[in-house]
Specification:
- By secondary structure, the chain is an alpha/beta fold.
- It is built from nine helices and 14 strands.
- It is 35% helix and 15% strand.
- The longest helix has 20 residues.
- It is globular, with a radius of gyration of 21 Å.
- The chain binds 4'-deoxy-4'-aminopyridoxal-5'-phosphate.
């Protein structure tokens, strides 16, 4: 019998079971390749095909026009916090505009400030980062080098429902925790980046979607590995890419296309999972208190508090005894967090909700 847990970790996180099973079956010998995907040169036809297929799957899922590059980089979303301003703020003499929605946006801002002028156009700190701005709260200046948003704040559990309108100013998005979880108007973005380890695959791969015309803005003299042109020109094969991680991204995106049926279908399931859980929180008579304001609630990371820290500790401990893992909130905010990424099943969410009803009945 399987001992697999109900996995609510924030990342690395649950992967689709059929993907794990296929990777396991083919680990020693990839069909037709005569070797493991772990053993093959990144210059071999097989691995080139893996990269191409993974990129093509992402293109199909997001409906990306040809003028976008799909890159597989390393260094996590954290390195993108630096690469974005190095490539697009340095030497422009113009400010970059950032929307500060929470812990991850704050980190992105800190790195950008090392490179040049940053204007924070909206900051949710006073509201403890419990909401994203409404479209009417955002005003961007046409001379900004770019605008940066965080589409989903993983720690606080808030998510943009609409893409801000930045006019002709390039929109850059940290989509680490909601990448390929729902359809997006891709052509509204100039650059999207995401660590793979939540919805798209394992840790070690960073996905970057980049509009071609942005490459012309990059200043001369950047270190080769930190220059997006290096990776765009070489098809992510300038140096040895994280081959195994990209192979898993290929399987996950194929699963999304073929088994789930695309991002609209995935979003429907994700919405249903989140609504089921928020309903339990809202129906608990105040025992469970959601952190996010209702119009900013994330479908990916659901965060809430209990009346005391003791109860929160007991909740996490008893949940683990019931097979529900990864529910401890981020150390910076405490409380409880359930991450409901693509591969978290409705059955797992049901199990969590039943546990919550039972915990409320016993301890409420
Ligand atoms: N941005 C967001 C929204 C995240 O959730 C994370 C990871 N939790 C990061 C950035 C940092 O990603 P990495 O660990 O891949 O550098």
């Amino acid at each position: 019998m399987s001992q697999r847990i109900h996995n609510f970790f924030a990342g690395p996180a649950a992967l689709p079971l059929p993907v794990l099973e296929e990777a396991k079956r083919d680990l020693v010998e990839l069909p037709g390749a005569g070797a493991s995907v772990l053993e093959l040169s990144h210059r071999s036809k097989t691995i080139e095909d893996v990269l191409e297929t993974a990129a093509a799957n992402i293109r199909r899922l997001l409906g990306l026009p040809d003028r976008y590059h799909v890159l597989f980089l390393q260094g996590g979303a954290n390195l993108q916090f630096s690469m974005v301003p190095m490539n697009f703020l340095r030497g422009t003499g113009r400010p970059a505009e950032y929307v500060n929605t929470g812990a991850w946006a704050t980190k992105a801002i800190e790195e950008a400030e090392r490179e040049g002028a940053v204007r924070v156009v909206w900051d949710g700190k006073a509201g403890k980062y419990s909401s994203v701005p409404k479209p009417r709260d955002l005003e961007f200046s046409p001379d900004a080098a770019y605008v940066h948003i965080t589409s989903n704040e993983t720690i606080e559990g808030i998510q943009f429902q609409d893409v801000p309108d930045t006019g002709a100013v390039p929109l850059v998005c940290d989509s680490s925790s909601d990448f390929i979880s729902r359809p997006i108007p891709a052509e509204r973005f100039a650059l999207i980046y995401a660590g793979a380890q939540k919805n798209a695959g394992p840790a070690g791969v960073t996905l970057v979607i980049l509009r071609d015309d942005l490459l012309e803005r990059i200043p001369a003299g950047l270190h080769t590995m930190l220059d997006y042109r290096t990776h765009a020109k070489s098809g992510s094969l300038f140096n040895t890419p994280p081959v195994f991680g990209i192979y898993i991204v290929m399987l996950v995106t194929r699963w999304l296309l073929e088994e789930v049926g695309g991002l609209a279908k995935m979003a429907e399931v994700n919405r249903r999972k989140a609504e089921t859980l928020y309903r339990v929180i809202d129906g608990s008579g105040g025992f469970y208190r959601g952190h996010a304001q209702s119009d900013s609630r994330s479908a990916m990371n659901v965060t809430w508090r209990l009346p005391t820290e003791e109860l929160e500790k007991a909740f996490v401990k008893e949940a683990e005894a019931a097979g529900l893992y990864g529910l401890k909130g981020h150390r910076s905010v405490g409380g409880i967090r359930a991450s409901l990424y693509n591969a978290v099943t409705e059955e797992s969410v049901q199990a969590l909700c039943s546990f919550m009803a039972d915990f409320l009945a016993r301890r409420g």
